[in-house]
Amino acid sequence: MPLAHPGYFAKIESLGVGGLKARSALSMLEGARRRGELQPGARVVESTSGTLGLGLAYVAQALGHPVTLVVDDELEPAMRNLLSALGAEVVIVDTPHPEGGWQQARLDRLRSIVAAEPGSYWPNQYDNPDNAAGYRGLADEIMTGLAAAGIGKPSALVCSVGTGGHSSGVGGRLRERWPDLRIIGVDALGSRIFGQPAAHRLMRGLGSSVHPGNVRYDLFDEVHWVGPREAVHACRALAREGFHTGGWSTGAAATVAGWAAAQWPGAVVTVFPDGPERYLRSIFDDDWCREHGLLGAPRSRPHEISDCRHPATCWTRCRTVPIPSDAADRRDEETR
Questions:
Q1: By CB distance 3.0 to 4.6 Å, which of 5, 44, 136, 306 could disulfide with 261?
Q2: Predicted TM-score (pTM) of this structure
Q3: Would residue 180 count as lying in a domain?
Q4: Residue 277 carries which DSSP code?
């Protein structure tokens, strides 16, 4: 998908309570409680495009913490309502930051909320190593599932990248087990993570307008920037033919996993992070997709670039993955 391919293995995370990011939510809050950074009953405050918010709402409720989620005006009304129903206070940012977009605007509002409420705790999913640590168990489950299917070693892991937690946690653990495992990062057009210039992102749940500290650039053998047309096509094809589907992250991962399965012998494995429910008015809405020009034929293979800084305007692949200079500068400052 979209090419004919021999199939790939996908770990379906939307079937768990709170989805994929309930794993990182639990890991971050439990870690903070152990270190004394999060006191009993203290408020948890986090910025989210929706997916982590769902996991935090469940986990914070279970651990006895009120939670405030800073979202933006583009978050689907149904997701806002669900987060509120789960007991979260939802704060909506209505104007994007002129340079950092919605993500920076949410972070600015978050910092003002934390400053105004002493004792509140910000997990900081972008830079918190407990985020990545929460996914090591997922990697173990993948290894168990592959072994049960008679797969001794996969040829490639395909990971969508947002905060860097899922790709670092799963990729790092699997690379320990199989040092020569090929790891392919999947980003969104318009995301800055791998050195691209920032642009408006139609796809939510992957990509970033900041450089998350959790991203382990050294893990990746290559990176793909997937466009929304490919993701829509993959999600709809999965619904028709695969007995499961999901949202932007799932569609992007499926696009690249299908392509990878056609490129190399051996098993390709990926993770489907989300389900379809919050995307019924976007990915699965013909009028919305038509309005955004997403119903045409997708690309059948990626465009190739030799430098991650060359602007990607369609599904694009780069086989060198250096750390972007501004991300490297930031990390150098933090270690001084």
A1: 5
A2: 0.94
A3: yes
A4: G
